[in-house]
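yo

u said u wanted the structure for the complex thing, so here. seqs first:
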Amino acid sequence: MKWDWGAVRDFLPHFWDGLLVTLQALVLGSLIAFVLGLVWALLMRTPTRWVRWPVGVVTEFIRDTPLLVQLFFLFYVLPEWGLAFSALTTGVVAIGLHYSTYTMQVYRAGIEAVPAGQWEAATALSLPMRRTWTAVILPQAIRRVVPALGNYVISMLKDTPMLMAITVLDMLGEARLFSQQHFQFTEPLTVIGVAFVLISYPASLLLRALERRLVR
Amino acid sequence: MKEPDAHANPQAATGELIRLDKVTKRFGDHTVLDRLDFTVDAGKHVTLIGPSGSGKTTILRMLMTLTKPDEGTITVAGQKLFPADGKQVREIRKSIGMVFQQFNLFPNMRVLRNITEAPVTVLGMSKDEAEQRARELLDLVGLGDHLDKYPSQLSGGQQQRVAIARALAMRPQVLLLDEVTSALDPELVAGVLDVLRDIAHSTDITMLCVTHEMNFARDISDRVLMFDSGQVIEAGAPEKIFSEPEQPRTREFLSAVL
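structre next:
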């Protein structure tokens, strides 16, 4: 087996396209997972059972089924109900939704870790409920969970190749296409493998630095 | 026909401010307070003493609406605090402040904002006015040059003094002090008590205080209530309670703590 720098050069334009798609899926998927997870976590704290129960069932269901199944479902079944989106949009929504059911548990743990005394001090100062959440509880809770959320971002990065299953050409999709067209597998797969490491390793270093700063 | 002022200001600055009527509080099978009656007059400093678990802290927590009685009524300035609807509770609560054993400062806010947060969002005070007042209060508690620090950068005693300033910033009629020196290192206790002595002697704020610092209780109190088994078993001026208690249970308690 011979390493062919020419193949690397030929693959690079496709690689950049794939990288862009991977990063788009990652960034948008993370945003959805962060926002929606917080929404789930807050809904699970409402006093009415009629909100908590459906949210609990739906999120448990999503958490307990594979992301790949959800991708196929959103991509092939929803259009039959008249809801058709582009493959990338579907992929971003699926990843974001799937991971929101994990981030919700992270937020829940963060909220529960805020000492009761903080709620009591807010009551003693007559802070309204909304202000208690936005100024006192959530800033403390989110600070605590940033490292855990970051770990899910790295997990999501490593799950983005699944989007290939619904025709999205992420890094792996581009590598596979190139390999099949040129019968050269080693170079493109090695390039994207290195790319995954180059994204996730600095990301985990950054996370550890954040953890040291935030969790005291 | 009522006098016009009678409705606008149900209680004058003197007279009864807080009244508990037959208040009962249970935790599971354990009755912490048993049909308790007592009153506090406006501007007075009342100290609750007694063994742990006798329900002293529970009384403060009920007045701060952190916990509800199971039976009975609580009245503050002539208005029902319990039983009452949420709106009335929120209204009365604004006139009550509390300082906690564990300080409970907001660790995500600097000292200055810990103090200005409630006056700005609850009382609608302008930011400038609230900060001006916060600086005055921090000077009063001897922390005028710490306003840009975070609570974690302060000692326990300093944090507690910030917490006192934070409670005072809401201009409460009633200040509840819940074992405010119990979590402090011994050498930091005096600084906090000095600040409270100062406030007790220089303001007309009504104070209700749970403490194990008997000298402090003697200094600042107009009345001392001795609690045992969910009841007030003896009440009176501090000179009387500390020098010639009538109840054997009071004598026993005081000889154990003094």
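The first helix of chain B runs from residue 4 to 8. Confidence is low (pLDDT under 50) at residues 1-12 of chain B.
cya
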